[in-house]
Amino acid sequence: MARGRVIKLDRGYPLVKVGQMDPFRCEHSTALVKSERVRSVIGDFVDVALPHGHDNGIILSIEPRSSQFVRRDPAERTSSQVLAANFERVIVVEPAVDLNVKRLERELVLAHEAGVAVSVLLTKADLVSDAAELAAVEQRVRDLAGGSVEVLSMSTERPETVEAVRAWIPEGTLSVLLGKSGVGKSSLVNLLAGKHVMETGSVREGDGKGRHTTVSRAIVPIPGAGDVVDMPGVRGLGLWDADEGIEAAFPDVAAFSSQCRFRDCRHEAEPGCAVRAAVERGELASVRVESYRALKDEVDQMRRKREEARQMRGEKASDQRDSRKGAFRARSRYNRGSARR
Ligand code: GDP
Ligand code: ZN
Predict the structure, then answer these.
(1) 183 Cβ inside 6 Å of ligand 1
(2) Sites in the chain below the pLDDT cut of 70
(3) Locations of Basic residues compositional bias (predicted)?
(4) Cα of 229 to ligand 1 centre, how many Å?
(5) What is the pLDDT of residue 336?
(6) 67 marked as binding residue
(7) Which of 77, 101, 226, 7 has its CA nearest to residue 122?
(8) Is the CB of 200 under 6 A from ligand 1?
(9) Which of 95, 160, 275, 282 fits as disulfide partner to 267, beta carbons 3.0 to 4.6 Å?
């Protein structure tokens, strides 16, 4: 038996790397399949057996995760899907030109929900008209993301701009790259790796028009630094349980909502609403409150649907998965403001 790490899902099978050996495909042991609902994902640490005469290894157990990236399952809307595990940082990647604020807000929520360090990388800085404009975009993102989130910009035209990104990915850590297809993640990884490790420029993810992923995501080691792994575009990034992620991604709103008279204030018509008062005083932008509310509504709606589905199956309220998540969260708080539940 050996300890390894899932570095890729190879046509659905975990590809596991053990020490310096070539990675090999694995299946989950029958006992594991029967006893646990959890299946291994990219980043999982696993105990594997390599039976003689078999091509495939057998995953005997999956170690508890220090962090995980969860989205709503795009196929089955009342369940969640874990896309990566055991990473130390999420790097949200957005182009510096034509900044899409709504998308950035959603990505920040998903990133914070993982309970790890979060940073934003603005790509394609060369396409911004001048240095002052770039500084303004960076500042706008800093204001929006709050003090706990570092913001950098880079450009493939100036490869030295990638060097600062390395500090986010120290040796022995894994960083998740989160951003829409085409934002320049592969170009970034190639610059970091100092060689061509990922295809660039082509549309690889399914975009609803019949094209499909041809390159599957894998953990990429960066020489002299840690590892990175690419995540799917925001199109597939529906929120799951993300209340804490929302609080952390909206520190400006959260700062006032903690002063509302009602703990569960929706900042709509309730008396004593500190959020609405702050908007009226001009201390908080109303667009931010609208985004916050829309994301909260999405999470609430999912929770209701999930509850309905559960009742249809005749199950009790809090299910096993949610209580597992609670235990997991208690261990993984990191770089997070004083978000109130
Ligand atoms: P990915 O889908 O996020 O992996 O994005 P890619 O790395 O494949 O880049 C998408 C397109 O943007 C490619 O045509 C790249 O050449 C281009 N691109 C990436 N980074 C930059 C940059 O810094 N400046 C400019 N001008 N183009 C870039
Ligand atoms: Zn309120």
Answers:
(1) yes
(2) 54, 202-216, 232-235, 316-341
(3) 326-341
(4) 17
(5) 37
(6) no
(7) 101
(8) yes
(9) 275
Q: What are residue 46's DSSP bridge partners? A: 4, 62
Q: What is the pLDDT of residues 143-197, one digit of tens each?
A: 999 999 999 999 999 989 999 999 999 999 999 999 988 899 999 999 999 888 8
Using alpha carbons only, give the angle 306, 309, 315 rounded to the nearest 5 degrees: 100
| List of domains in the chain | 2-63 (2.40.50.140), 69-230 (3.40.50.300), 243-340 (1.10.40.50)
Please give the model's pTM, rounded to 2 decimal places. 0.86
Q: pLDDT value at position 326?
A: 42
Place of tokens 């190639």: 190
User: What is the 8-class DSSP label of residue 78?
Assistant: T
For residues 89 and 118, the answer to whether their CB atoms sit within 8 Å is yes
Per-residue model confidence (pLDDT) at position 316: 64
Q: Scan for tokens 């091509």, then name that residue.
A: 55
Burial of residue 38 (CB within 10 Å: 0-12, 13-18, 19+) is middle
Ligand nearest to the CA of 188: 1
Query: Residue holding tokens 């170009």?
Result: 187
d(CA 144, CA 280): 19
Choose one of 91, 156, 198 to mutate for the ligand 1 pocket test, by most ligand atoms within 8 angstroms of C-beta. Answer: 156
CA dihedral angle for residue 115, residue 218, residue 198, residue 111, rounded to 10 degrees:
-10
Handedness of CA 48, 50, 51, 56 (dihedral sign): positive
Is residue 282 annotated as involved in ligand binding?
no
Residue 51, classed as helix, strand or coil, is coil
**Backbone torsions φ then ψ of 91, nearest 5 degrees:** -105, 110
Ligand 1 atom, smallest distance to 155 CA: 23
The answer to whether the CB of 71 is under 6 A from ligand 1 is no
